[in-house]
Write a structure and sequence with these properties.
- It is built from twelve helices and 25 strands.
- It is an alpha/beta fold.
- The protein folds into four domains: 6-116, SH3 Domains (SH3 type barrels), CATH 2.30.30; 138-209, SH3 Domains (SH3 type barrels), CATH 2.30.30; 259-276 and 435-561, no CATH class; 289-427, TIM Barrel.
- The strands form six sheets. It has an eight-stranded parallel beta sheet. Strands 8, 9, 12, 13, 14 and 15 form a six-stranded antiparallel beta sheet that branches.
Length: 561
């Protein structure tokens, strides 16, 4: 995901992408067990635990300080508190600032360790975390009040229910031990017991448990007292069970008409409630693919959205440095097919591939991308015909004056895609609109210069993209948002163009954009950028968020009406 504006390109600054990675990264180690998260803060989802002694290759630090991002030898990318790594303060300070959507450009390092399921005692996130010796880790099932189970840990505050999607019976808190004794057939929920004796079901994504541990649990039916309905899967030591095959989960409900949703970060209860109020039925998340990853790594994302009642669009972006590697397109296509088989409702194939932030300079070519799209489309449809394939949305820009080795204007790029036959390999044409400072009904009057380039207008985007493909495919806004600093400090200079936009305008314009899209006959899906991001700094993502400081959501109320 990336929001890019023409005027920033004229200044030579790519939106969210002006940072330069430290050459080769900073190789260091984890000094003590630390939670590994998908963002720089304790409100982000816990991916697992980085064990003491694990090698980690860092590519950057959080602009607000306190957190660093890196990759472990098992190709897991995430954030840890900076006090949990062996790097010095000066070395950390020398790292570039990166945001959660800044592309990760490093490969997994050689070294020791990886991300593991934690022991019952939570790893610290203080300035002096306490290591838990390996020999103290529970290695076998333990007994619970309701029978045998395995002791894991709750990853974040979450409701416990009497059945999958049932009534709330308790509140599980982050870091609590949780003894699980069974799972649902679709592996979206696990059943277990909390320290106070409460027994029920929790969405698997909010439990720190490995995919193999979930697969090894018996399938249980009914409420907390339900009996096992199937024998456990093969133990993890069985080579055939080490990488369980992807089982097709074809959607039985066709995607018809117009619908809308939001790009989520934390996707906690606040975001879910806001989205429901707004009438949203889709959630979007982004996944950064690294060659060799197992599609099952994405299962939690899919199951979580479905458990909360949303369809899910996953934007899958690979590593720009791998694009020209032999066989990479087929590897990527195989991965997205695996994600489709797991039940993804829609997949966006790459992101902003017309600029060298997301595609290698010198290889930016709509024909080359169309080849990737073709392979991916055929693979996805072979795995799950119900998954909607959306072409990667180009960065909206007119900076390049056509196409050059370093980038290509989006109007030229989509024309090139159309000429290469891309319409044959997509269900929907992806586009981004996120630099508007006038209402979506306006087709002129933007106060900025350059003759009012089309990317500044809602209808300019729709008409340009539709014309390029002669209306052969519907449009899908995979990002549409309005930036406002209201409730925050002034915007950084590179975003000063939105300084006078109010929250009221944001709410009204989003409501209008959804209504106009629904009635246009051209738009199939609109994803609001964004719902609940909290980062506000050099890249003020929180300024786009519809959940504002204090928890209110005027845009949700406007959409609800």
């Amino acid at each position: 995901m990336r929001r890019i504006a023409l005027w920033m390109l004229l200044l030579g600054t790519l939106f969210g992408g002006s940072l330069v990675f430290a050459q080769g990264g900073l190789l260091t180690t984890i000094t003590s067990d630390a939670k590994f998260r998908d963002g720089p803060g304790t409100d982000f989802y816990v991916l697992g635990v980085a064990k003491a002694g694990t090698t980690i290759l860092l590519d950057g630090r959080a602009p607000g300080g306190g957190w660093v991002r890196g990759i472990t030898p098992d190709a897991k990318i995430g954030w840890v508190v900076e006090t949990a790594v062996a790097a010095s303060a000066a070395e950390i300070e020398a790292l570039p600032k990166v945001w959660i959507d800044t592309p990760f450009g490093l490969s997994a390092p050689a070294g020791n360790g990886g991300i593991e399921v934690p022991a019952a005692a939570p790893p610290a996130e203080s300035s002096a975390p306490t290591a838990v010796p390996q020999e103290q880790q529970p290695a076998a099932p333990v007994a619970s009040a309701g029978g045998p189970g395995i002791e894991v840990q709750v990853g974040s505050n979450v409701n416990m229910r009497d059945n999958p999607d049932g009534n709330v019976i308790a509140r599980a808190l982050a870091n609590q031990p949780f003894i699980v004794d069974g799972r649902s057939a679709d592996q979206a929920w696990v059943r277990g017991t909390l320290p106070d004796g409460a027994k029920g079901w929790i969405v698997v994504r909010y439990v720190i448990i490995s995919g193999q541990q979930v697969a090894d649990l018996p399938v249980v039916e009914g409420g907390a007292s339900g009996a096992p309905a199937a024998a456990p899967a093969a133990p993890a030591s069985d080579p055939a069970a080490a990488a369980p095959p992807v089982v097709a989960a074809v959607s039985t409900t066709p995607i018809r008409g117009f619908s809308y949703g939001g790009h989520v970060g934390d996707f906690g209860d606040g975001a879910v409630n806001a989205m429901r109020l707004a009438g949203m039925t889709w959630a979007k998340r982004q996944w950064r693919y690294i060659a060799g990853q197992n599609p099952n790594d994405v299962a939690g994302m899919i199951n979580d959205a479905h458990a909360k009642g949303f369809r899910i669009l996953i934007g899958i972006v690979g590593q720009p440095g791998d694009v020209n590697n032999g066989g990479y397109f087929d590897q990527y296509a195989s991965f997205v097919a695996g994600v489709a088989a797991l039940g993804a409702d829609a997949i966006e194939v790459w992101n902003e591939m017309n600029i060298d932030r997301e595609w290698p300079s010198g290889s930016i070519d709509p024909g080359l991308y169309t080849d990737l799209l073709r392979r991916s489309y055929n693979a996805i449809k072979g795995a799950n015909p119900g998954t909607m394939v959306i072409s990667g949305a180009p960065a909206p820009t007119g900076f390049f004056g056509g196409c050059s080795p370093g980038g290509c204007d989006d109007s030229n790029y989509i024309a090139g895609m159309a000429a290469a036959g891309a319409a044959n390999y997509m269900d929907c044409l992806g586009l981004h609109y996120n630099e508007g400072i006038v209402g979506p009904n306006q087709t002129s009057g933007d106060p900025r210069g350059n003759g009012g380039y089309f990317t500044r207008y809602f209808w300019g985007m729709i008409n340009t993209y539709s014309k390029a493909f002669r209306n052969a495919r519907p449009l899908c806004f995979t990002e549409l948002g309005y930036l406002t600093p209201e409730g925050f400090p002034p915007l950084p200079g590179s975003f000063g163009w939105a300084e006078n936009v109010t929250v009221g305008q944001q709410a009204s314009w989003l409501d209008q954009a959804v209504s106009l899209s629904r009635n246009s006959g051209k738009v199939k899906l609109l994803i609001v950028w964004n719902v609940d991001f909290t980062n506000y700094g050099d890249d003020p993502m929180a300024g786009y968020a519809i959940i504002r400081p204090g928890g209110g959501c005027p845009a949700c109320e406007a959409l609800a009406n």
